[in-house]
Design a protein that fits this description.
Structural class: mainly alpha
Strand content: under 5%
Helix content: 55-70%
Mean pLDDT: 74
Strand order of the largest sheet: 1-2
Shape: globular
Number of helices: 17
Largest sheet: 2 strands, parallel
Low-confidence stretches: 1-9, 12-21, 70-74, 295-311, 334-341, 343-359
């Protein structure tokens, strides 16, 4: 009980503990703050996923006192006026309304936090505290938009989402490439300095990845090319296989190894496996008859992008999982890491949008003495750009919104989850993303050899 009271006190106040209190291990305030903001995204996704549960709309109609058989009387039997009905809970428009206040929240936080350079800034407590109020504001915003926001906002909001989601996809690809390099470098360092058995781990990992890549592409050929007019699918899958072989061979060429000795098959296998997933995800969104996820008796409208009673729930869940992995990967990094320098948000001279100062890990000694479990490590300089961090979460919100709605076309007028969305737009976004990912990874291999005088962070 004392732990709970302590946690709530932290939530209400401006301390950086953010509901962590003395019950949890010692952590930096910069880390706990980013994890708490990740919780907001998690709540948004959880609420949005509820509508994907089969029969949720019918169950709400049967529950007493909730609504009247999906009519237009509003919620709670009409006692609360608004545009929300039971039927609208099982719609893609519901997801749009849930994500809207979250994106606005991170957008406003990004503006407020421009040029914050240390925790001594008057705006720093807003970033690192008041968690109860932040969560309450976001939840209240979600309730307000779900109940009262008009439906005609969907199409302009979709256009904005597509623009920012494209930016997030590019950054996500950069972070995945960096993760692959960091994973390989970390295990190689352990093999050189600790135990040679780490090399077995590297060998097992890339062998496992390549087996999964081969199996995945074989399954793509089996299930997505057994139809008439399958030239596009065969071409896309074949290009993916060719690019996989190309980047794998290039990664171990002597000329590449000379300037980037840490390049290898592990990174190539991680990138190729992810790109194979993107190809599958794209083909699974194809509205044509070559998509086995569309039942034979369903009617498909290629232009409208809707189909019968099938769903892309599997690809949606995998996409959400990968997105959260990327977000958490970025969350746990600091301005001293290689990835932030490549994105332009770190550096000794000051960083984009205010990530500057000499970052130190002050406060650890006090934490070890049993004083604050969550200590302020940003008195001399922030560990990450607050403004860029919120910008990243804003565009991640847009991307998740599109993933949760299967890249629904808001111009069709059909927003029912029962009529799953299959669009050429989603198909090509994912296919082109896989090619861009190969290109980014290829550039990280070739750039050190092409520009030997520049430091690209891969030693």
């Amino acid at each position: 009980m004392g732990c709970l009271i302590s946690s709530m006190a932290c939530c209400v106040g401006s301390a950086a503990c953010g509901c962590i209190s003395s019950c949890c291990p010692t952590m930096r305030s910069s880390t706990t703050s980013r994890l708490m903001y990740s919780g907001i995204l998690l709540i948004m996704v959880a609420i949005s996923l509820i509508i994907r549960i089969p029969g949720i709309s019918d169950a709400l109609k049967k529950a007493p006192g909730i609504c009247k058989d999906g009519d237009n009387s509003g919620i709670i039997n009409g006692y609360i006026p608004g545009v929300l009905t039971c039927d609208s809970l099982s719609s893609y428009l519901f997801v749009y309304k849930v994500c809207f206040p979250v994106a606005i929240f991170f957008f406003l936080m990004s503006l407020i936090m421009i040029e914050v350079r240390s925790s001594k800034d008057i705006r720093a407590p807003i970033q690192n505290g008041f968690w109860l109020w932040k969560y309450l504001i976001v939840i209240a915003g979600i309730i307000a938009t779900v109940v009262w926001m008009p439906e005609n906002f969907a199409y302009p909001w979709m256009v904005i989402a597509y623009i920012f989601a494209f930016i997030f996809i590019i950054i996500q690809l950069l972070l995945l490439v960096d993760f692959a390099h960091t994973w390989n470098e970390s295990w190689l360092d352990n093999a050189e300095n600790k135990d040679r058995s780490w090399m077995c781990g590297i060998a097992f990992s890339f062998c496992f990845n390549f087996v999964a890549i081969i199996a995945g592409n074989v399954l793509l050929y089996v299930f997505y090319t057994s139809c008439t007019g399958n030239a596009l699918n065969i071409t896309v899958i074949t290009i993916n296989l060719i690019l996989c072989v190309v980047v794998s061979v290039v990664s171990i060429l002597p000329g590449i190894q000379e300037f980037n000795p840490r390049s290898g098959l592990l990174q190539a296998s991680v990138i190729s496996l992810y790109c194979t997933y993107l190809v599958w995800s794209g083909l699974a969104a194809d509205p044509s008859g070559c998509n086995p996820m569309i039942s034979d008796n369903s009617t498909t409208d290629t232009d409208a992008g809707t189909s019968g009673n099938s769903s892309n729930l599997a690809t949606t869940l995998i996409g959400i999982g990968i997105t959260f992995f990327v977000v958490l990967w970025s969350v746990l990094q600091t301005s001293s890491s290689n990835y932030s320098q490549k994105l332009g948000v770190g550096g000794e001279e000051g960083a984009l949008l205010g990530c500057g100062g000499s970052y130190t890990d002050g406060g650890a000694e006090e934490a070890e003495e049993g004083k604050p479990r969550v200590y302020d490590n940003e008195e001399d300089g922030v560990a990450y750009s607050y403004s860029f961090f919120h910008f990243m979460f804003m565009i991640a919100t847009f991307y998740l919104m599109l993933v949760l709605t299967d890249w629904w076309n808001a111009n069709t007028g059909d927003d029912s989850i029962k009529s799953a969305s299959y669009t050429k737009t989603s198909l090509w976004i994912k296919i082109v993303s896989s090619w861009v990912c190969y290109a980014i990874y290829g550039w990280t291999l070739a750039a050190p050899a092409m520009f030997p005088d520049r430091d690209f962070g891969y030693s």
